Amino acid sequence: MFENLTIKNLYDLNETIAKDLFDGLTYPWEALPKISEFIVKLGNTLPADEYDKVGDNVWIAKDAKVFSSAYINGPAIIGKGAEVRHCAFIRGNAIVGEGAVVGNSTELKNVVLFNKVQVPHYNYVGDSILGFKSHMGAGSITSNVKSDKTLVDITVGEERIHTGLKKFGAMLGDNVEVGCNSVLNPGTVIGRCSNVYPTSMVRGFIPEKSIYKKQGEVVLKRPVE
Q1: Residue 10, CB half-sphere, CA atoms under 13 Å: how many?
Q2: What is the mean pLDDT of residues 113-137?
Q3: What is the pTM of this model?
Q4: How do 177-178 and 170-172 pair as beta strands?
C-alpha cells in the first residue's frame, strides 16, 4: 500500500538538480533533514560560468531573475531561468528548480522545488518537496507542524506510516495542481497529476490522477478520449 508514497512513484528525478539528494532513500520526506548539507556540497561544485555565489552559501544562476526586494538566506540554490519575484522570502535550505517561479510575498523554508514549479502568489511552503510542474494557487500553503507538536504520521486508508519528523509539510508529485487558499496539513502526500479544489483542507494521501473535492470525497479523473 505504501508503494504509492515512494520517490519513484511521485517524482521524475531527471527534473531536479537535487537528484543525488534522494540516493538510497525510499520515501521523499527522508530527504528533508538532508537538504541543508546537500545544498552546500552541491553549491560548491556548480560552475562559476553558470552560477554566481552571493552571500553565505547562496548560488544564483546567471540567467535567473531575482527582484531586488526579494530576500534569500542560505543555504540556497536558485536554478537556471528561475524567477524570484517581489518580496519573496527564502529563509534558507531551499532549492528552486530551473524555470520555477517564487512569487510575491511567498515564503520558502527547507524545500526542494523541482523544475518549473510555480508558487507564485502569497504561498508558504515549508519542509516540503514539490514535483515537476506542480503549482500552488494563490494563498495556498503547507502547514508543517502539528498543533500538538507531536511527530507527523501519514494516513493511507486505515493504515499509518510513521515519519519520525516533527516538521513535515507536503510532498506533491509531478504535475499536481493545488487550488487557491487551500491548506495542506502536516503529512500530506499528493500523487502525480492530481488536482485539489480551491479552499480545501487536505491531509493524508491522495492517489495519483485524482480530484480532491473535500475530505472524504476524492474521485479518479476520467480518461481523456
Answers
A1: 28
A2: 98
A3: 0.96
A4: unpaired
List of residues 6+ apart from 198 with CB closer than 8 A: 137, 179, 180, 181, 182
Is the distance from CB of 27 to CB of 12 less than 8 angstroms?
no
Could you give the CA distance from residue 118 to residue 121 in angstroms, rounded to a whole number? Answer: 9
Give the Cα separation of 192 and 222 in Å (integer).
15
- How many Cα atoms within 13 Å fall on the side-chain side of residue 116? 11
Q: How far apart are CA 78 and CA 67, in angstroms?
A: 13
50 exposed, middle or buried (CB, 10 Å; 0-12, 13-18, 19+)? exposed
Question: From the CB of residue 7, how many other CB atoms can be counted at a distance below 10 Å?
Answer: 18
Task: Write the CA distances from 125 to 56, 64, 170, 222, integer angstroms.
Answer: 22, 20, 8, 30
How much is the pLDDT for 215?
87
What's the rounded Cα separation, in Å, for the pair 192 and 1? 16
